[in-house]
Amino acid sequence: MKVSRITRPAIVLAAMSVLWLGLAPAIASAAVPGTAVSAGTGWIRLAHLSPNAPAVDVYLYSFGNPDAKLVLRHVGYGIVSPYEPVAAGDYSVAMRPADAPATTKPMLSAGVMVPGGDAYTVAGVGPYPGLRLQVIEDKLTTPPGRALVRVIQASLRQHQVTVSYAGQLLAARLPFASVSSYRALSPGTATVRVLGAGSRASTDVTLASGTVHTLVVLDGTGGLMIDPLQDAAGSAAVPAGGAATGFGGTAPHGAPSPVPWVAVITAGTLLALAGGGRLLRRSRPTSSRA
User: Fold this and answer.
1) Most buried pick, 102, 111, 139, 211, via CB within 10 A?
2) Is residue 242 part of a domain?
């Protein structure tokens, strides 16, 4: 079959569109831990879980590098950042009073070794006079057909809480500033209930197969509050989002999704196909980070 001069560019443009659409999943997977692309990548997220401590600025440093890799400003109680992908290695986290110069001596600091494929939460916990940074190891994978759930107890008003999901006990009399073990549960949607000595709270949570969740118990304005975080979803895929309380303008941003670019390219291809003949008749034109 003879291919016209107009049809040839159309075929090439259509092929390019299909190629970009085929590449989209591969580009997206580059930010997913557990894949071949990110075998040397670990994950860190930062949290402020001390009810009576003031807002802070949080700095993340690579070991031996005085320049901050990431700075989060005005991080207040109940805030959990999205995960930040980092090259496997040693890091340190420092907290300074909000708006303090970067040269100010940290009020708290802690080191964390991040192997490739692992994830950690570094959180300011405890009452303000005894505030400390705690390094918490996070899981990214689950037993087949199950979901994992744990509890972080960050309510100072209720010194101990008992937490259940669909009547199954997740944590009994969990003390303030402590973390429960993970519990493997069947997928589904059910009610999480938190009971303290003088307050209680509940919320519905959906657990999908292969997902990992952290339930953060907080002091709210009217009593206890539950903040359900989804840490990982299927095949060790860490979501971009952090706590439901939001991280505002301080949030680090992951790699942009390729989908908008694919849409632009596809739209451009369709326009080119529609106007190919007319075009051929014309002459040729001569992720705040520190």
Assistant:
1) 211
2) no
- Does the model's pTM come out above 0.90? no
On average, the pLDDT of the chain sits at 78
Domain boundary among 198, 218, 233: 233
Structure tokens at 41: 């990548």
What gap in Å lies between CA 155 and CA 51, rounded to an integer? 7
Range of the domain at 215: 142-233
Q: In terms of C-beta density within 10 A (0-12 exposed, 13-18 middle, 19 or more buried), how is residue 169 classed? A: exposed
Domain assignment present for residue 197? The answer is yes
**CATH code of the domain containing 222:** 2.60.40.1120
Is 122 found in the same domain as 28?
Answer: no
Please identify, among 139, 160, 184, the residue that sits at the C-terminal boundary of a domain. 139
Q: What would the pLDDT profile of 47-63 be if each residue is shown by its tens digit?
A: 999 999 999 999 999 99
Helices 7-29 and 259-274 pack at an angle, to 10 degrees, of 180
* pLDDT tens column, 268-281: 443 343 444 443 33
Contacts with 140 (C-beta within 8 Å, 6 or more apart), sequence order? 33, 34, 43, 117, 118, 119, 212, 231, 232, 236, 238
Q: Is the pLDDT of residue 96 over 70?
A: yes
